[in-house]
Structures are given as C-alpha cells and as structure tokens.
Amino acid sequence: MAYLGRQLTAGNYLKLDDISSGFNGSTKNFSLTSGGTAFYPGSSYALLVSIANIIQEPETAFTIDQDVIKFTTAPANGAAFFCVVLGTALGVGVPANASVGLDQLKDTAKGVGISSSGTVVGTGITSLNFVGAGNTFSVTAGVAEISISSGAGGTWAANTTGIHTSKIVGVNTTTIAGAATSEGSLQAVGNISITDGMLITDSDIATSLNIPSGKNGLLIGTVTVGAGVTIDVAQNSTLVVV
User: Fold this and answer.
1) Closest-CA residue to 52 (of 71, 35, 38)
2) Structural domain boundaries in the chain
3) What are the strands, taking DSSP E only, across 11-108?
4) Helix (H/G/I), strand (E/B), else coil: 58
5) 30: how many CB neighbours lie within 10 A of its CB?
6) What distance in Å separates the CA atoms of residue 78 and residue 25, rounded to the nearest whole number?
7) How far apart (Å, rounded) are the C-alpha atoms in residues 13 and 87?
8) pTM of this prediction?
9) Are 198 and 205 in contact (CB under 8 A)?
10) CB 231 within 8 A of CB 205
11) What H or E segment, with its residue span, contains residue 18?
C-alpha cells in the first residue's frame, strides 16, 4: 500500500538501540544511543516509544533531557522496548557575514521609515546622523529622545530674511544683509525699537550712511554726526530731518 499522509521533507527515520536490558522495575532514566553513539533527539515528540507493546505518550509517560530518556514509571524487568526516531534535527546553517540583504528581510525588519508631515522621505533607514553642535540623543526604555538645536539665539543664514510672528521680535545686526535697496527686509544697524506705537532711535550717528537713488531717509533730530562720518544722499532721493 502506498504511503498516506504528509511526506517526510527533512531528517531521517532511525531505530535506536535496545535499552530493555537495563529494565529492573526501579530505574527510570536511560541513555539513548544509535549504533553505540549517544543520540540527542531534541524533543520527546520526535520519538515513537513502545514498552511492553504499549506506545508511550510524550511528555506524560516520558521526557527527554539531552541524550537521556526519563520515564514517569520505571519499566518492568523483561519488558520489551523499541524506539523509532520520526525525524532528526536539521540545522539550517548560519548565513555568511554580509550575505543577507534588505530584499531577504521582512519590511518590519528593514529599519526605520522617516516621514515629514505624512510624506515618506526615506525607508529602511539604519542610521541617523545629527549634524551640528547642540544636538543631543538618548534612548530610555526603547524610546529615542532627540533634541535638535536650531542655532544660537535663532540665528539665520547669511542674507536670509523672512520673519513672521505674533510675538515681540528683537533684531540686531552689525551689517546690512543683501542689497541696501532690498524691499520687504527689516534691517537694523545700531539700536532701534518700536514700543506701543513709539519709534525710538539713536541720537548719535557713528556710521556713514547712504540713501540710494529712489529712496527716502528719515532722521529724528536732534542728531549728532560723528567725526569723519558722512551722510550721502543720491540724486532723486530725499533726507528728511524731523
């Protein structure tokens, strides 16, 4: 009759050496061998064990510890014994270093996915590098705590403008950013403030000033112009002192 049921796909059937010569009604533990060599089945469920022509239930009638079979009840003297191994352990081997790529891994094992405002900007990220001083990174109980510094005092790149806020803004610079004719730029050399509708400026002019063509300048006097300091007004421009 042909074999019925699922075919054996790995391992091998073995009949282990007879250990019934050690049965005496009191001994419960016996070493398993195959051809005289110690045999390690790995699991009691891999064995078909018969004592006195009665099949023994794994983990109930016997257990396995390394190469030793331990019976719950000691086999009687002269009881017949046989043990068939239904399949031997099959080692899957260890992949060589650097031999497994992302294509062989599940998506959940491919690292971190990075998104910004719901848009994916990177997948399979395995390393994060925070560039610049002031950045801190720590991991506590599996949670990454990241602090990113935006620059000392909220500094801006050279020639960059564009501040919009509902809070008080303090602006201080030592040089004009970009062209002096830039529109829509708030620039201050020296001290200037607007408080409750009042414009407050320095009364001393210590830096030479230039009003470009097509622009108007305003001085709130009385002002003192320092030695060697000039105020140049281009054609088609106006300087008003109030």
Assistant:
1) 71
2) 14-85, 192-241
3) 14-15, 29-31, 33-34, 37-38, 47-51, 54-55, 62-65, 68-71, 81-85
4) strand
5) 20
6) 9
7) 5
8) 0.37
9) no
10) yes
11) none
107/125 Cα distance (integer angstroms) = 12
Pair of tokens at residue 14: 């073995």
Amino acid at 59: E
Are 233 and 211 within 8 A, CB to CB?
yes
Tell me whether residue 177 is exposed, middle or buried, using C-beta atoms within 10 angstroms of its C-beta: 0 to 12, 13 to 18, 19 or more: middle
Name the token pair of 149. 């510094």
Whole-angstrom Cα distance, residue 10 to residue 89?
A: 8
pLDDT tens digits in sequence order for the chain, 242 residues long: 555 555 544 556 789 999 999 999 999 999 999 999 999 988 899 899 999 999 999 999 999 999 999 999 999 999 999 999 987 656 566 777 777 776 777 766 666 777 777 787 777 676 777 666 666 777 777 666 777 665 555 555 555 555 555 555 555 555 555 555 444 455 666 677 777 778 888 888 888 888 888 888 888 878 888 888 898 888 888 888 88
